[in-house]
Amino acid sequence: MTEPRFFPEPVPLSVAEVAEVTGAVPASSREDIRITGVASLERAGAADASYLESRRHRALLNDTQAAVCFVKAGDASLVPATTLALVVAEPHRAFTQLARHLFPSALRPRPIGVAGEVSDKAHVDPSARLEDGVTVEPFALVGAGAEVGAGTIIGPGAVVGPGVRIGRNAVVSAGVTVTHALLGDRVVIHPGVRIGQDGFGFVPGARGHLKIPQTGRVVLQDDVEIGANSTVDRGSNRDTVIGEGTKVDNLVQIGHNVVIGRHCLIAGNVGIAGSVTIGDLVMIGGGVGIKDNVSIGNGARIAGASAVGSDIPAGETWGGYPAMPVMEWQQERKAFYRLVRALPSMAGKKSEDGSDG
Fold it and tell me: Which of 21, 29, 170, 178 lies at a C-alpha separation of 20 to 30 Å from 222?
């Protein structure tokens, strides 16, 4: 069995071309090096670029086989003679810029079939409007009155509901359903995502729970990315909105009426209850749960596995269960550990004299 390569082999780059792409400054002139890949320090080979972000990984740098390594100015002397140091202020960012240049097709899902064609096994309602260059793959369905912009991919088995609007150069991957939604340009929806279904809204009562009509929409602004098998409920009395450039990981639940700002990062297994408001540039770690009607300010950070039950001011870092400012959380944990360590000696003292110590 042959070993497949899923991305095209990149055109080799000289050191000068790598420097031009990344803004790095080579420690010396080397005309013999050609870069065709990127890899971690321990896996890099003779045609790969790597990077050192922290001196904690100095041991890996000593043994690396990388052709070039992005480093900060103060770390250039640590690079072995067999590897060329490329000095730059942010090594990881430079490494990523190079990877994007070498492998541009890895930045967004590609069509499984022929790009720019509507499969004869797909169903597109006659009233739907598709601009030139839209790809609709087998067994996809595009509903009545839907509009899809040029260059967008509708993957196999995907469903685009009636009246949905999707911008240009977007991707709706295999098995996705999109209803009651407006999607901007370059939005990427990974496989299995559900967008626009009704939110979880009921008025409880002794004789049954009264379902609340969910009459809002989902609005995903330009450059939003939604990870595989995540869900975004439509609003009940206002739209559910995800702002420009926000990236959502896999298996995330976003409830009805939630408003998320621009350029946020939301890691996997996060659950956001209804009517939460999140500002711009917020970072939320994996497994966080956020209570309904909470407000999170611009630039806030939430540690993974935290339970958020109250508002978080702008710029603050919170963590814990329940979540609190990070310094309070750390102090509480230290106090708890001190108490736990003290328990055996306290129990021993009680057993010796019969008192409570």
Answer: 21
* Angle in degrees, CA 116, 194, 132, rounded to 5: 15
Q: Residue holding tokens 């900060």?
A: 72
Q: What is the DSSP letter of 28?
A: S
Spot the catalytic one: 101, 180, 190, 256. Answer: 256
Quote the DSSP letter at residue 55.
Answer: G
Put simply, whether the predicted model's pTM sits higher than 0.90 gets the answer yes
- Of residues 171, 189, 184, the one with CA closest to residue 110: 171
* CA 131/CA 151 separation, integer angstroms: 8
What 8-state DSSP symbol labels residue 244?
Answer: T
User: What is the C-alpha end-to-end distance of the chain, expressed in Å?
Assistant: 72
- In angstroms, the CA 124 to CA 140 distance is 8
How many other CB atoms are there within 10 angstroms of residue 24's CB atom? 26
Q: Which residues pair with 148 in a beta bridge?
A: 130, 166
Question: Tokens for 14?
Answer: 């000289």
256 is annotated as an active-site residue? yes
Q: What proportions of the chain, in percent to the nearest 5, are helix, strand and coil? A: 20, 25, 55
Pick from 234, 125, 241, 99: which is nearest to 177 by CA? 234
What CA–CA distance (Å, rounded) separates 325 from 307?
Answer: 12
Per-residue pLDDT of the chain (357 residues; tens, 9 = 90+): 888 889 999 999 999 999 999 999 999 988 899 999 999 999 999 999 999 998 888 999 999 999 999 999 999 999 999 999 999 999 999 999 999 999 999 999 999 989 999 999 999 999 999 999 999 999 999 999 999 999 999 999 999 999 999 999 999 999 999 999 999 999 999 999 999 999 999 999 999 999 999 999 999 999 999 999 999 999 999 999 999 999 999 999 999 999 999 999 999 999 999 999 999 999 999 999 999 999 999 999 999 999 999 999 999 999 999 999 999 998 988 898 888 888 876 666 665 555 554
- Report the length, in residues, of the chain: 357
DSSP conformational letter for 105:
G
